[in-house]
Structure formats: C-alpha cells, structure tokens
Amino acid sequence: MSLPKQGAAADEVLAALSELRAADLPTHGGRTWAYVYDSGLDGLDALAHRAAEAVTGLNGLDPTVFPSLLAMENEVVGAAASLLGGGPETVGTVTSGGTESILLAVKAARDAHPEIDRPELVAPVTAHAAFAKAAEYFRVALVPVPVDPATFRPSPADVAAAITDRTVLVVASAPSYAHGVIDPVVEIAAAASARGVRCHVDACIGGWVLPFWRRLGVRLPEFDLSVPGVTSLSVDLHKYAYAPKGTSVLLHRDASLRRTQYFAFADWPGYSMINATVQSTKSAAPLAAAWAVLRHLGDEGYLDLASATLDATRALVAGVSSVEGLRVLGPPEASLVAFGSTGPDLFVVADELTERGWYVQPQFALGELPMNLHLTVTAASASKIAPFLGDLRDAVAAARAHGPVVVDGGVVEWLRGLDPSTLTSEEFGGLLAGAGLGGGEGFVLPARMAEINALLAAAPPRLRERLLIEFFGLLYTP
User: Fold this and answer.
1) Which of 344, 377, 402 is the last residue before a domain boundary?
2) Angstrom distance (rounded) from CA 163 to CA 159
3) PTM N6-(pyridoxal phosphate)lysine: at which residues (predicted)?
C-alpha cells in the first residue's frame, strides 16, 4: 500500500478501521483468556480515552517542559510504592510495559558493575522471557535455574549455588506467568543479599492484585519491597490496574539503585540528552490514562475488582479440576490458571474452545514441565465461568472423539535435523507448504491450529524460535 493520492474523509477512515477490527478477538466480555484485562466496568475505558486525548500533543521526553506529566508520574509511582512495600526512599519510573521495566532493571544492575567483564543474570527457567530478551540486548549471560516439576518453583539452594562473582542480578517472580505460582522471594532475596547482588521481583502481573487478595484473607508468601534484599520490582498498570496499554512501573528501593537505569549523553552538539527509559520521545497518553484510572477507582474500587477476580479464579480452578482428564497445575497462587491433561489432546481442546467462542493460550512443554492451556482471569471473568466450564467439558469430549494429533515420525526426524542457524526462507516456505499453509495462493493461517502446534511442539526450542522469526517475517510483509 502507498499513500492515497487524495486523503479520505474522517468517517471513511474510521469505517475502514472498524472493518479491520472485525477480525480481532474481543477485548471485553471475558471470552479472551490472554493478552487483555477487562474490569467489566462501564465507562472506565471512556475515562481513560478522554484523559489520553487531553495530553496527546505532550512529550514525556523533558519533564521540565510539561510539569503535568511529572506530577502524574510521581503520583502513579507513589501509589505503586505504597501498595508494594516501598518506603520513603523508594523511587520509580513509569515505562511502556513489563518488558521495558525488566529491560531497565537488568540494565541498571549491569551498569552498576562496569568492572565485571562477563556479567550474569540468574533466573528460574519459569522467569518471563523478557529477562532472556534483556540478557540478549545487554550482553548479559542468562543462567537458568531449574524448577520443581510439581510445584514449578526453584529451590533457594539452587539459586544460591548459581550466584557467582559475575552475577549482577537475581530474579524471582510473583507470580511466574506460565503457572501462576509465587517463587520463594524471601529466601532468594536473602541469597542474593548475602553475595551483595541485586534482586528483582517480577510482579508485573501480580503486583496490583495480590496485595488486595491478602487483604481479602488469602494467605500469600511475602514478595514485595518490604522483603529484605529485594532491590527492585516491576508491576504493570495495564494488567490488574485496568489501565490501557501500555503502562508499567519499575520501582527501586532507593535512588542510588535507579541511577544506572538512566541514559545521559552530552558529547554532541545538540541538546544534552537524559532518558529515564528506553524511549526518548515518549507518549504522554498512557501515563495520563493510567493516572485517571487509578484516581477514579481508588483503593476501594480495586479491592472490589480483586474480590471479583478472586471469586472467579477459585470457581475456575474448582471447575477445571472437576473435568475428567484435566488437572490444574501448581496449584496457582494468583489469577493465572494453567491446566494439563491426562488424556485429551490439549491442542485439540484449544481448537474446540475457539470454535465455541473462547480463546485460551497453549503453552509448550519444557523438559519435565508439561504442556498446558493457560487462562488469565480478570474481574470480567466472573460471569463467564459457568458457560466456559460447560463448553470446556464439551471441548474435552470432542477432543477425545477426535483423538490426538500425531506428527509423522519422519517429519519429526526431519525437523530435529534442521539447523536453526542455517534455516533459509526457502526451507521455511517448504515447511509451510508441507503443512498446508502455503502454495499458489500464498500464506493461509488455518482455522484450527492443533496440527501446527503439534509440529512446533516437536521442534527443539532453538528451532522453534527460528521458525517463529520466519513466521513473523512472513506476517510483517506489506
């Protein structure tokens, strides 16, 4: 597509946008169990959009030029710090999302030790992939720590044993995304502190709901900045604070720990550069929207939403556990529910649920950790638990009747013989054609994904990564 010779009327543009959006999964209504966070509250989105519109022309690059943004950011950071065990010395930064918060935490830890030639990052294998991304971006070696295949938690002793003189950061999750369990933060932070190493808690998904669950009587392990040895923590506002994407907060115990997060540069003839985040020019809209939502809901509003989410999570766990052939993994300690199978093919179950109007997220096996289907529960899920469980039972029955997807042994052998470092686009095209996804009409994404997921599951992780890179390259071609 090139620019049109003459611009279209505003109504035409919006109509075209509406037509494009028709193919998207619903972001409200509780049927999309991944990627979106729905409060179920009328008017909340409209408030956020109005707040964002009010600051559309502002630039978060320089807080001295737009003091309103500085005031809003400090207020948002203060709210996060007070919720998550921060003290009077706690400081923070609003970022574009959990990944940027994690990137900055790793950068700050690395740059605090310029004397370490080959810095290392110690993280359980269940830590979010954003830590692997940060390690790759900032040339920090990722040292993975195994987790128990039943509890999905790392042993604090294994974490302590992985720390060396080159370790700049140790990671714990509250909760880990894949299984919704909270790592032993107290013990991990103590092990890091004993070696003089920073400890970051990834509370991106749990940080804005777990404190309210505790107030509702749920017994949870300690995980926030009140834990000795925890030096930084990330929490996303576009998750359970129900703000629009993308807003996250990175908290540091004190300003000395945050200093190396910043980038400053004055050795050029332009203006002296100082950035708190990866971004330089920075949209003010997400910050203002988040600020407005936090102010509107307040403490009592979030407690009510957390209560609805807790009730929905408990009902979902009980319901899934009652379905023959399924087992809830963990058990989860947060609003993330993953369930495995003792019988039906879960890839087929996912397809059957899609046909019934539900989206669930397949997760592949890793070593002893089983493949599973993953669901993110929100406040809007409460009214959807009963119909979902009914359709889940039907989907499991249909999957049993369908039988498991079987990948030809020769195809598996061929896949495992591919070298990810030398895979060409032509070889990838041949793989797509063999899977029925290419040909004369070009790329076609199938309605049912079980066969594709089974092929991906048969591929080793490094090859799967390369296949996904080629797949994305194909998608993002004008």
Assistant:
1) 402
2) 7
3) 239
User: Which residues on neighbouring strands pair with residue 337, listed in sequence order?
Assistant: 375
- Would you say residue 193 lies in a domain? yes
Q: Taking the mean position of all CA atoms in its chain, how far away is CA 349?
A: 23
Structure confidence by residue, pLDDT tens digits, 346-366: 999 999 999 999 999 999 999
pLDDT confidence of 443, banded at 50, 70, 90? low
Tokens coding 384: 């959807």
Can you tell me the distance from the alpha carbon of 276 to that of 281, in angstroms, rounded to the nearest whole number? 11
Identity of residue 66: F
Query: 237-276, pLDDT tens digit by residue?
Result: 999 999 999 999 999 999 999 999 999 999 999 999 999 9
CA geometry: angle at 252 spanning 180 and 278, to 5°?
Answer: 85
Give the CA diameter of the chain. Answer: 70
User: In this prediction, what percent of the chain has a pLDDT beyond 70?
Assistant: 97
- Name every residue whose Cβ is closer than 8 Å to that of residue 383 and which is 6 or more positions away in sequence: 30, 40
Q: Which domain holds residue 336?
A: 308-402
The domain total for the chain is 3
Q: Which two tokens stand for residue 50?
A: 């109005």
The pTM assigned to this predicted structure is 0.94
Q: Is residue 22 part of a domain?
A: no
- Same domain? For 322 and 440 the reply is no
